[in-house]
Amino acid sequence: EEEVAGLRRELADARAIASKASATWDRFRKERDFHRMHHKRVAQEKNKLITDIKRLKEHYAKYEPTIMELKRKYETAMKEKMLVTLDRDKVQAKLESAEATLRATGSLAGTAGAGLGGT
Fold first, then answer.
1. Which of 1, 56, 62, 100 is the most exposed place for a label (fewest CB within 10 A)?
2. What pTM value is reported for the model?
3. What CA–CA distances, in Å, run from 106 to 7, 18, 89, 95, 116?
4. How far apart are CA 65 and CA 86, in angstroms?
């Protein structure tokens, strides 16, 4: 009977060890599955981001010629504006010079005429 009791104890111990090992393996399996799913999720997100980046690059490439054309037009308009401003300043300077000349000749004529009329 002692032998049977000893064997039963051994059997109970072996079952406890097997149960513990089974629980450990189940925990490891769940952990592995969790990390596997996380890795798949991260890989999907990465692929989605890569696709989005490619799409945005293509989208930007479509607008780049338009942007360059608008930039060229802006620069041309600014150059023309500067030339018009320079021409306006030049004409204004000529006008002021002509007015000054007229005033000078007018004042000379006025003094010369006053001298003639007084005698």
1. 1
2. 0.49
3. 140, 125, 25, 16, 15
4. 32
pLDDT in tens, 33-57: 999 999 999 999 999 999 999 999 9
What token pair was written down for 52?
Answer: 């989005």
Q: Which of 27, 50, 31 is nearest to 39 (CA)?
A: 31
Provide the token pair at 97: 């010079």
Whole-angstrom distance, CA of residue 95 vs CA of residue 69? 39
Token pair 């500067």 is found at 82
Of 44, 65, 46, the C-alpha closest to 54 is: 46
Distance CA 27, CA 37 (A): 15
